[in-house]
Amino acid sequence: MATVKQVVRENDFVELLHPVGSWSAGARGTVVEERDGHKLVEISDDQGQMLDLVSVTDAQLRLISKHSD
Questions:
Q1: CB 3.0-4.6 Å disulfide test: which of 15, 26, 27, 60 passes with 56?
Q2: 13-65: what CATH class?
């Protein structure tokens, strides 16, 4: 059976697969922008307050859930 890889897009909820900056692998956030092969991910607290923005490649992300249009 073939594995289908879902494409990560803006507003999708993702998890970091590797440490990025001060964030460990497993940190979760929302893709807020796509640019030049990179995704800008907003890391927020439980109340939705933005803590950080990190720029990562698709290979550094695991899709948790798709944003529904």
A1: 60
A2: mainly beta
